[in-house]
Design brief:
Layout lengths: L4 H4 L6 E4 L4 H4 L4 H17 L3 E4 L18 H26 L5
Parallel strand pairs: 1-2
Length: 103
């Protein structure tokens, strides 16, 4: 993800949800390397004035498909329910900063 972050996030983007996923774990990257990659992506986005929300929580096993890699529809709904309050809080903060009344 780190190599693709600049091209994958177009100019004009306000908020990015980063979900590092399990590829790093599956391909034998250390926890420290994985954390450094996520931090580097957050820095790159911050340097571009883009807010980032990192979703790296453990997903309960019942939300995985039979391959234990991909998510079911319920799994996607679960993640959306977890992300919604964080996205709304980020949007609200950005609106407060941009609001002329906030000054």
């Amino acid at each position: 993800m780190l190599k693709r972050i600049d091209n994958a996030v177009p100019t004009g983007t306000d908020i990015v949800i980063l979900q590092p996923g399990g590829n790093d774990r599956r391909f034998f990257v250390t926890k420290e390397q994985r954390a450094a990659n996520v931090a580097a992506m957050e820095r790159r986005l911050c340097d571009r004035a883009i807010k980032s929300i990192v979703y790296d929580e453990e997903i309960p096993s019942q939300y995985y498909a039979f391959d234990f890699i991909h998510l079911t529809a319920d799994g996607h709904a679960f993640i959306a329910s977890q992300l919604l309050p964080r996205v709304l809080a980020t949007v609200d903060r950005r609106a407060m900063v941009a609001s002329p009344r906030a000054k």
